[in-house]
Amino acid sequence: MTSHGIAPRHKFRSMNINPNNKLLVFNNKNSIPDEGGEIQRDVQKSGLGMEPEEEKEKHIQNALNALNNKSRESVEIPVPRYFPLKEEDLYPKQFGQSPFYYRVNEKLPGIMSDEIEYTLDADDFIWMDKQGFISGLSKEEGAIMEDNVEMIIDILEKITAQKNEDNDSTLCTLEELNKCYKFPREKIVKSKEDEIMLRNIFKHWVEKRQRRKNALIRRFQRPTPAENKDISLCFRPRMHRQGGRRQAKKNDYHSTMFRYFIFRTFFLIFKILI
């Protein structure tokens, strides 16, 4: 017992003494085990060297039964089971695989869709009336129709958006429009009059774009790059998480005041002693 009346904790694992076991006797000094050496004791293991819960698994039990009953004919040898899956069972019957591959253009992914997003407004109709455009009801061979105006302006807008991911300061040129794979120049431009009309459409688009100082097709605004330090710009992604410093500031204040108090106390003691 200790001074506090609490029995000391054993520093070794206690074992029950069985008087029926024979006493171990060492004949010489060399046979006595070293106290600092490792104590090797037999650890009870399962037959497969795994946990008892894992050994109760169904397939492992079948394997053990087949191993122990080799002479019997009714031994069930565990083998992996598989079920063949037909392609008709995986997909619906009305599903039809396309013979073509889906291709993506890396240079101009913004104009891959055939859907025309631009819609003619009142300014476009007034301008077309002055230019003498032919309506879609009376088609003529080699004439630029109203629908083609929407398509041309739509392609110009999408090429411009691809050239300027951050801002739309650089507009598309007429040469870039003619080289664009989405622009069917052979079907639209068939004469000198059509070439002049195409240039007029391009000129009208440039003037309208400069007058509005914005894109004619609405698009999502991308966040301002973190490298741009202009404080007037918003939608900048936050680089560092703003953590609360209220508790830290409070602790810093108390620590500073405590240091001042200790300094004044030591100064007064030093003054009294002198």
Automatic annotation (TrEMBL):
GO terms for biological process: regulation of transcription by RNA polymerase II. It is found in: Nucleus. Residues 16-158 form the Enhancer of polycomb-like N-terminal domain. Transmembrane segments: none annotated. InterPro entries: Enhancer_polycomb, Enhancer_polycomb-like_N. One of its GO terms (cellular component) is NuA4 histone acetyltransferase complex. Coiled coil: none annotated. Belongs to the enhancer of polycomb family. This is Enhancer of polycomb-like protein. It comes from Streblomastix strix. The lineage of its organism: Eukaryota, Metamonada, Preaxostyla, Oxymonadida, Streblomastigidae.
